[in-house]
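Project outcomes to date are best conveyed with an example. Our students and postdoctoral researchers have been running inverse folding experiments weekly, and each run begins with a structure described purely in tokens. The record below, which covers 341 residues, was selected by the lab manager from last quarter's runs and is presented without edits.
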């Protein structure tokens, strides 16, 4: 499960605005801050715990999520905000936007639950064995509350917020942040609003723009799904290369997908099976040559080649040097930029 890099950008902007020592934080994380603005960046969700533990350690603030919230910019990533604005009512906009929640995260689950005269926005984990990290929960609920206010021209504020964790700061700080009573140790993290928010009519409603926004959201989601397929293919490569059973039909069988469909989806993604396999083999060969003492004759078979001569020709075509030259150059200068064919 992965999260959009734009979520990380929001937190990054908040940390900078709050004056945190971001260089030390990223150095400990091993992140390159220059990668953060990349639109296509999607980070593994399990890294969130390590991220927040590192931020806590550097700042010495066990309630850093709460204290970052006032510095966070409003989330304006992807196209979900536009779906909310261009829909006829807030309720309709939310229903549309939630269809594309994967654009934000695979791991978070958001839904609207109507309860008598109120409606709750529930925030839960998409995986039962991976609860939402406490700082993520606080920041996400804060962003959702701010987004509701933005879309409804500040006409609707939460009447109550519930958090699943115990407070590590005075409850008054939470109530001041959210502008309403806050419940702790709740079963579900949620923000409760007057039910009238669902019928709030957007002054920006535009059926033509709405159609364009939905089409764009669908394209973005389709692109993520193709990226997921490529990651699944790489996983199958890792399992099958040594078996020398790594043809398109073998991989398609491993994915429970007809070969023709797999070939079609890869064409839509702008690549091909042979290109993905070649890239995977080259990356694996580079890693084994640079980071292990594995004999080259073993690397030949680990990368799925049946003959050493075939491996040598392929590697020289890729790297413009022999495997032995690559290994020696990496050991002399591990950080050197090497030519890649």
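After processing, the design step wrote out the following sequence:
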């Amino acid at each position: 499960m992965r999260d959009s890099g734009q979520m990380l950008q929001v937190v990054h902007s908040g940390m900078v605005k709050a004056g945190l020592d971001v260089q030390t934080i990223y150095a400990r994380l091993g992140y390159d801050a220059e990668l953060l603005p990349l639109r296509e960046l999607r980070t593994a969700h399990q890294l969130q715990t390590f991220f927040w533990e590192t931020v806590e350690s550097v700042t010495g603030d066990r309630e850093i999520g709460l204290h970052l919230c006032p510095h966070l910019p409003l989330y304006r990533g992807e196209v979900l905000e536009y779906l909310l604005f261009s829909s006829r009512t807030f309720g309709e906009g939310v229903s549309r936007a939630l269809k594309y929640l994967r654009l934000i995260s695979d791991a978070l689950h958001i839904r609207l639950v109507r309860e008598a005269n109120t409606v709750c926005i529930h925030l839960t984990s998409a995986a039962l064995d991976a609860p939402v990290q406490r700082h993520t929960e606080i920041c996400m609920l804060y962003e959702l509350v701010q987004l509701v206010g933005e879309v409804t021209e500040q006409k609707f504020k939460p009447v109550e917020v519930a958090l699943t964790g115990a407070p590590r700061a005075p409850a008054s700080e939470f109530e001041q942040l959210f502008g309403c009573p806050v419940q702790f140790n709740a079963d579900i993290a949620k923000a409760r609003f007057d039910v009238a928010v669902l019928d709030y009519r957007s002054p920006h409603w535009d059926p033509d723009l709405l159609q364009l926004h939905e089409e764009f959201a669908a394209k973005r989601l389709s692109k993520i799904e193709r990226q997921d397929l490529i990651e699944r293919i790489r996983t199958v490569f890792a399992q099958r290369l040594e078996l020398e059973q790594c043809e398109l039909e073998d991989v398609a069988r491993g994915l429970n997908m007809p070969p023709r469909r797999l070939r079609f989806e890869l064409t839509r993604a702008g690549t091909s099976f042979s290109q993905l396999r070649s890239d995977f083999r080259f990356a694996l060969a580079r890693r084994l040559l640079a980071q292990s003492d594995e004999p080259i004759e073993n690397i030949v078979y680990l990368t799925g080649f049946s003959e050493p001569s075939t491996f040598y020709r392929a590697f020289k075509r890729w790297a413009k040097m022999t495997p032995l030259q690559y290994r020696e150059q990496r050991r002399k200068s591990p950080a050197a930029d090497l030519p890649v064919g």
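The radius of gyration is 24 Å. The longest strand covers residues 108-115. The training component of this project remains on track.
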